[in-house]
Amino acid sequence: MRLKALTATAAVVALGAATWFATAGGPAAELIGKARGERGIEAQREAGGEREANDPDAFERSGATQVIAPRAMRAPLAPLPSGFDSERVWGTGDDWEPMVAADPTTAANVYQMTTRYTAKACGTRKHCIMFRSSADGGTTWSADIQMCAACKSISAQNDPEMKVASDGTIYATWMNDWSVVFSKSADKGKTWSAPVDLKKLVGKSFTDKPIIAISPTGQDVYVAFNSSDSYVAYSHDKGATWKMSPKINSGTLYYFAEGGAVAPNGTVYFAESAEAQAETGPINLTVQSSSNGGVSWMNTVVDVSQQQPPCTLSGCGGDFYGAQINLAIDKAGTILVTYAKSTVSGGPMTLYSRTSTNGTTWSAPVALPTGATTVGADFPVVTAGPTAGDFRVAWMDDRNGATAWNTWFSKTTNTGGTWSTPVRLSDLGSGAAYKTANGFTFPYGDYMGMSTNSAGTNFIVWPEGASYAGPGGTWFTKG
Widest CA span of the chain, in angstroms? Predict the structure, then answer.
């Protein structure tokens, strides 16, 4: 999610395709901005309540249904190499921006979350986060569970993130309206602790786009988020009590956390992009680090991308294709970042990787084997494999055409020196109205998820859709 904010008593500010209003005396009157990637929270704030600028439920109310072909009717375009399964879809809900987390100590347990825009499933909420679990390595799945269904006065949920500790405890963070919250489950997702509202710790009117990182045992928990500026909430008792970092960045850029991990020596790192409030101009691709448990932080610019390609679809924000950066840390403590970068303002983006042992000095960039027509490659995720030097990256790109996106996978066994030939994971040429033999129409949401277990199995989820307004679905594979 990308929200722009400023303080005002009454204002109308037009940013990109969406316009936000604030009226003196109305709820959250100081919140004026545009949310990148969260259709249901792109709202016009007015006295007396909230209404949606882009009306994400119009598809639901129209009486139409999303048509997903039965699995037996779908056939992969070609056998997938490297042992990946053919892609599958999570039900028939209008789902986007999913997340996945694998248990690090067993090949059996894996968990998924997705943001669902289906009113019948979400009750009084405009959209909600659904969770499900698998006890057989992702072959079969439990029934869907709505996260925090008993939470009162919540109109919408967004941005799910998960990590699993060595004892099997699931740590999760997401947004209840504009509050970043934390919860955990000790019984494989059957029940969850009462959400902790991390927004209260920072004392801001909104918090946005959380990313979670944990130590292997879950003793140390870090949640990075923004309130335009960058912050991290941290706990050293498995989420029982929390403290808040000071503002990490200087200047006036708008920060978005996109990846995080804790190194073997306990140092925590987050990868964040930072753009101008007006969504124009260069984007700093940064890594933030703390070696004292979150008390103080360093903010290092790893690279700079020129302005992102435009998104011309109705309702799509000006920074939807904004350059992103993600990171993982291997068993030896080497940090690898992968990021999307454009060298020409508005031009297509390429993925690069760089490595570091301390988060401040970095190797020369290495280009990954991506492809491009209009936008290029974006939304990268990266994980570390079971051995030193082993990293895996997944992303989406439009090499097959501007409306023929696909999800791809590549790996390195020499710490990013070279990368394998990409594997196309979105291998079905049918199964939904937005799919053809060349790919899917649009990346439905601005991020995807990947998790790798101790056996080296990769679990990957991503969103495919018809347009920015949907409908779409969460698709996944393993291999």
Answer: 59
Residue whose C-alpha is closest to residue 242's, from 149, 170, 180 = 180
What is the separation, in whole angstroms, between the first and last Cα of the chain? 29
Rounded Cα distance between 414 and 417, Å, is 5
Write the pLDDT tens digit of every residue in 23-61: 222 223 233 334 544 534 443 222 222 223 333 333 333
Residue 137 and residue 107 in contact, taking contact as beta carbons nearer than 8 Å? yes
With beta carbons less than 8 A apart as the criterion, state whether 296 and 309 touch.
no
Global model pTM greater than 0.85: yes
Q: Which residues pair with 287 in a beta bridge?
A: 271, 300
Q: In sequence order, what are the residues at sequence separation of 6 or more whose Cβ sits closer than 8 angstroms to the Cβ of residue 251? A: none
Contacts 24+ apart (CB under 8 A), 100-103: 100/162, 100/449, 100/450, 100/451, 100/459, 100/460, 100/461, 100/476, 101/162, 101/163, 101/164, 101/170, 101/449, 101/451, 102/164, 102/451, 102/452, 102/453, 102/457, 102/459, 103/164, 103/168, 103/453
- Distance, C-alpha 246 to centroid of its chain: 24
3-state secondary structure (DSSP) of residue 232: strand
- Tokens 């599958």, located at residue: 88
- 446: tokens are 């601005």
Give the Cα separation of 168 and 200 in Å (integer).
28
* Contact in structure between 352 and 369 (CB atoms under 8 Å): no
- CA dihedral 426→261→169→394, nearest 10 degrees, is 0
Residue 383 has phi, psi (to 5 degrees) of -135, 160
Q: In this structure, how many other beta carbons lie within 10 angstroms of the beta carbon of residue 49?
A: 11
Give domain limits for the chain.
Answer: 71-478
- DSSP state for residue 156 in the 8-state scheme: B
* Topology of the domain covering 71-478: Neuraminidase (2.120.10)
471: preceding bond cis by omega (within 30 degrees): yes
Q: Per-residue pLDDT tens for 328-384?
A: 999 999 999 999 999 999 999 999 999 999 999 999 999 999 988 899 999 999 999
